[in-house]
Amino acid sequence: MAEPSSGAHTYYPPPESKGGWRCLSESDEVRALASMDSDRLDRMCQLQEWLYGGDSWGLVIIRHGYLVRERYTFNVLIPTRFDIWSGTKSFTGTAFGLLFEDSRQGRLPRQQRVDLDDPAYQHIPKGYPLTDPRKERITLRHLLTMTSGISGEKSGIFGTPTATGCGPFEHALGRSPNRFGKRVDRLWSEPGTRWDYSDPAISHLSLVFAQVMGRDMHDYLQERVFAPIGIENLSWDVHGGSGFLGPHSNAHTGIHVSARELARFGYLVLHKGAWAGQQLIPGWWHDLATQTSQEDNPAYGYTWWVNTCGAQWPSLPRDTFSLEGYRSNRCYIIPSLDLVVARVGSGPAMWHESLLMDEVVEAIRSDGRAG
After folding, report:
1. Residue 368: what pLDDT?
2. Which residues share a beta bridge with 69?
3. Ramachandran region, residue 112 (left: φ > 0; alpha: ψ -120 to 50; beta: rest)
4. How is residue 173 annotated by DSSP?
5. SS3 state of residue 191
6. For tag attachment on the chain, is the N or C end more exposed, with fewer CB atoms within 10 Å?
7. Cα gap 49→292, rounded to integer Å
């Protein structure tokens, strides 16, 4: 299979306001230019509608830079945006990859130096006094790989929902319970030793970023990534404020985006952060983030879900990786197949993702000229 080229001749779509993706519709075009089986794709789309037509969603498939199929439920338009929930985490990871590169190049405010192995609370002065002395040993690497020891889903902590009179960052720092009375004041494991999917841990990254950069992640990525690749209609919820810490861009959820524009971000990452001759995301960060980050959960990289060991998606290539959010929001990237598949929607909460991705990949394999 041919890997995508990031050279001068690679196609990059103009913004939606200027024409957007180049699209294929006829079977012969799809076979000749995208090396895919159009009939198989159509059957897959019909099955998705039959199974999940009770929810609102949009689906886009990009191969060789062509939009080969898109499908929307009857109440969704091409520019309709959805909250991609935890898919936001991969955008947060991207912001930190850029921050680390800015540090390497001496571009941070006040000539600061920030590294993956910095103690996280070194950059969160408002996090003191610590609610657990072991928090001194939490690094930025731990936060980005879900190995901080801060309680998450294994302890029944989902999101950072707070009651009136409590702030979400205060909860994440361990100073107040969530609205169900659960606390994250004490670490459940020594930092760096165990994996747990923890939204309170990821929330720390909002505070770190704002402290280091003096600005929030949305504004930063708008300038460095969204505008250069032509994303025009993305919003990002803020967290906190109203007398509590914040508001800051929400690190763990809250990006609202359409299927086409999420696919645009996926296409950037497909090309290892390069777009039209510019290296927007450092290649070293891409390589690090999309590989297994630790042994406790080999399916997790640095804010991306990965298939390095073949455990996450056994039927898909090992170089598959994805951003993933609640209610079946996804963006799959498979560099060896030059493929991006983006799905956004309001549901379902649980779905059979192999019915989508296995069929998309088989639509390539069933074509003798695929690759």
Report:
1. 52
2. 61
3. beta
4. T
5. coil
6. C
7. 33
